[in-house]
Known about the structure:
Blueprint: E1 4-9, E2 15-20, E3 26-29, H1 36-50
Antiparallel strand pairs: 1-2, 2-3
Amino acid sequence: MAGHFELVPEPNKEFRVELVDGRGNVIATSIPFKDSTAAVAAISAFRTMAAGAPIRDNTGAAPGPRTRKTRQ
């Protein structure tokens, strides 16, 4: 199922990136970026990292310690 990235302009002249699946569902939305160039750079970084990124289950369903620090 092929998907695509979309650059979405925000009212404050920033941009977000959405990852859209082959059915048109938005499955991820980024933080805001100051301009479209920064958003496109983030897409490039995401593609590089995601290809080999392990899955870390922080739901408590899997045994082992949490791997993410909680926000305060």
